[in-house]
Amino acid sequence: MRSFMSSVEGNLSPSDYQLKNSLITTIKNRFRTYGYQETGTKTFQDYDVYSSVIGTVHKQNMIKTIDSSGEVLVLRPDVTIPITRRMAADEETDDRLFYVENIFRQLGEDSQNKEFTQAGVECFGENASDSDAEMIALAVHVLQDLKFEHFKIEIGHAGFFKDLINELPLSDLESEKLQELIQSKNMAEVGPFLEELQAEKHVINAVKAIPLLYGDPKRVLEKAESIIVNDSMKTRIDNLKYVYGILKAYGVENSVVFDLGLINHMNYYSGIIFQGYITGYSKPVLMGGRYDHLAEQFGRATPAIGFGCIVDDIFKAQKASRQLTETDSPSQLTIRYDSNSMKDALAAANYLRDSGVRVITENTENHNQNVSSRFIAQFKQENAVLFNQQEEWHFQTADELLILLKREMREG
């Protein structure tokens, strides 16, 4: 669904994989609190589905393959499209869905970053400012749950900019060029580009003002009202005003700014668009918006809004800001035994594992004693002892061992 990516897959240590999975669990839990249910899509998708949909991933960015029948397939470059297609075919009965999927794209000359993990939500059937605001509030709450102290959700409106440039005599190529200049806020080239067009002066001035409409929502809305050139643009600003009022009711207004020069390369967006930035991290870690006309390309008119988080970028941002807490060692307990104590030791290991303890067993006659567990239980025929680097405790039964472990892990 989004037009940005980063990949650290394949370079994660086992500890980092645990941290990343914990991050994903946090995101999933927040999605569920807003009434979303998990869904999924196939890794291999029909190439024709993506190549025929207007405004989706560029064909050159898709990773293609051919199956045994000669059909061209693509590794899933986007999740919104297959979910929307399935919903349009009435295969999905739920209108609030979330997913965690790997996405595959080739961007530019970068041959390394082809795969990344995305977690996102899709809300179908609701076309109201209230659902726009709720989606943005959810994005804020996700980043709050991930313990980021400094971040902003930038909010724009795809329709506001489109309504304005429709007043200009632009070819498709010129329109794309202007959008690139606006997105990069390249004021030095925007002016000369517009001056070459045969357009009314007040329209040109309005376009020049777009990149400057960034910052405090109240101030941006006031300035935006001064450059309105048609009724549609006024409707968009009224929508943004109402959304901002709801965001204040949610209590998240300090986490948002407005950017009416915000442009997303996924051209199926039709209304509010937004993206989330973590202070100190250069790329957006989430992107989303309203796409009310996408389902029409699959034969069903259904409004929709959603966003996706790039889990790999969030993970990197957390590590950069030292937000991550190291997980426990792979095992909490190593049980050591010899041939004489094997039966009792392995029975105790089964009991402890069934109780949720992470256990490694080690035959001292066959293994080097080199496991870095937090606790070690030494089984011998005469006695059994639990110890760590500071203390040791004797026990007689597996139940006593479990009680000791729970007590020491709680106090430690």
From TrEMBL:
Taxonomy, superkingdom: Bacteria
Pfam families per UniProt: tRNA-synt_His (PF13393)
Domain Class II Histidinyl-tRNA synthetase (HisRS)-like catalytic core: residue ranges: 12-312
Any one GO molecular-function label of the UniProt entry: glycosyltransferase activity
Coiled-coil regions listed in the entry: none
SUPFAM superfamilies: Class II aaRS and biotin synthetases
Additional remark text: This function is generally fulfilled by the C-terminal part of HisG, which is missing in some bacteria such as this one.
Alphabetized PANTHER family for the sequence: ATP PHOSPHORIBOSYLTRANSFERASE REGULATORY SUBUNIT, HISTIDYL-TRNA SYNTHETASE
Protein name in UniProt: ATP phosphoribosyltransferase regulatory subunit
Species name: Lentibacillus persicus
Organism placement in taxonomy: Bacteria, Bacillati, Bacillota, Bacilli, Bacillales
